[in-house]
Design brief:
It contains 13 helices and eleven strands. It is about 40% helix and about 15% strand. The chain has a six-stranded mixed β-sheet, with helices on both faces. A five-stranded parallel β-sheet has the order 6-3-4-5-11. The two termini are about 30 Å apart. It is an alpha/beta fold and about 375 residues long. The longest helix is centred in the middle third of the chain and has 16 residues. Bound molecules: pyridoxal-5'-phosphate. Pyridoxal-5'-phosphate binds next to helix 4 and helix 8.
Length: about 375
């Protein structure tokens, strides 16, 4: 699902040094995003998030350089804003009016926000244990919101079954190219913010994996443009124990296999037992000499405290990157000479205890149709 660009044309239209005069959103890279007419761009101010150097932690951990990319500062409190800004721009350009997503939470609220801004109708399907505050956000953005008696892939199945009858445009992970292209801008920004260099290691909390695919696309395009040179960073995919299909597949040395048993991890963006393009993720990890790590709930909690002591408030997903870094340093996989970037993909506050709003719970599409009389 890679979008091909005429990179010669991009280079002619967008000299690298001109970027400094561009707006401070991800749309500074409009020529590298799949929008035909810039008047269709749907923006709430996403992207160009701070890349903060953690000097104290570098000294303490004896690391060459360490940064955290503060994705929680995006408009909807998570990096998901990037994907939906792009996906709904494309949808708007195509005249689409009804959009639907299956999500663990943050994608649902981001879709709801961007659809509201575009005046589109949004349908969001979330697992029953989705954090209450996120469900509340979806409702406040005006989305038709339902909980599913199952996990994110069951919700995806519901949308796949109903999309024709209901006229839904399915914007679930890797169902269309806009979300991965939007997330590509994390990689473009990283390169620009580091002065057109890349770090040695990127640690990214991985669920469906479109962020990894997006960043890999970014770096390969930048290399083709001649804006960066050299090796790509080693990609580290972090998962939580209890739902670690990438870790297991990598260890087996073979092809990607979705999780066979029931997922036993916490209800966060990391709980994706059947990532739609696990094979592509494995290929990127292997190609970049990266790795995959499963961290425990306790390690994640400790990561939140450790990042907190650096002045960074992190979501469980963001904190998982700290936990993975600590583990990989103990194992010697990350060494003193390495420059490392962690992605704090959403806001800690999204997970603050909040009473669960009352919304319908459904089993599958037939059940949803019956309940909604559609
Ligand atoms: C906060 C957060 N971090 C990471 C992820 C995983 O992102 P990706 O689908 O790019 O692997 C999610 C997905 O829901 C998320 O909400």
């Amino acid at each position: 699902m890679r979008v091909e660009y005429d990179l010669e044309r991009v280079a002619a239209l967008l000299p690298r040094d001109e970027l400094r005069y561009r707006e401070s959103t991800m749309w500074r890279y409009a020529e590298l995003l799949p929008v035909a007419d810039p008047r269709h761009i749907l923006s709430l101010g996403e992207g160009w998030t701070p890349l903060v150097r953690l000097y104290g932690a570098e000294r303490m951990m004896k690391l060459r350089k360490l940064w955290v990319k503060r994705e929680e500062q995006n408009p909807t409190g998570s990096f998901k804003a990037r994907g939906f800004s792009c996906a709904l721009t494309i949808a708007r350009e195509a005249g689409i009016r009804k959009v639907a997503v299956n999500s663990n939470g943050n994608a649902g609220s981001a879709l709801a926000a961007y659809a509201a801004h575009a005046g589109m109708e949004a349908y969001v399907f979330l697992p029953q244990d989705c954090p209450g505050l996120i469900v509340r956000e979806c409702l406040d953005y005006g989305a038709h919101t339902c909980l599913i008696d199952g996990l994110i892939h069951n919700a995806g199945q519901l949308i796949a079954e109903g999309k024709e009858e209901q006229g839904w445009h399915h914007v679930g992970t890797l169902r269309e190219h806009g979300r991965a292209e939007g997330k590509k801008t994390m990689g473009l920004e990283l390169a620009e913010q580091l002065g057109w260099r890349l770090p040695d290691v990127i640690i990214y909390p991985t669920g469906g994996g479109s962020g990894i695919i997006g960043m890999w696309n970014a770096f390969t395009q930048l290399r083709e443009l001649g804006w960066i040179e050299g090796e790509l960073p080693r990609f580290v995919c972090v998962q939580e124990e209890g739902c670690d299909p990438l870790v297991r597949s990598l260890a087996s040395g073979g092809q990607f296999r979705p999780l066979q048993e029931e997922a036993g991890s916490s209800p966060t963006g990391l709980r994706v037992p059947h990532p739609p393009d696990g094979e592509a993720l494995l290929a990127i990890i292997r190609e970049t000499s990266g790795t995959a790590v499963a961290v425990s709930r306790e390690e994640i909690r400790e990561g939140q405290r450790a990042l907190g002591r650096q002045g960074i408030s992190s979501s469980p997903e963001g904190a998982a990157t700290w936990a993975a870094m600590t583990r990989l340093m103990d194992e010697g996989w990350i060494g003193r000479q390495d420059e490392v970037v962690l992605f704090n993909t959403s806001h800690a506050m999204k997970y603050v205890e909040h009473p669960a709003p009352r919304v319908p719970v459904v089993k599958d599409y037939a059940d949803w149709r019956r309940l909604m009389r559609k």
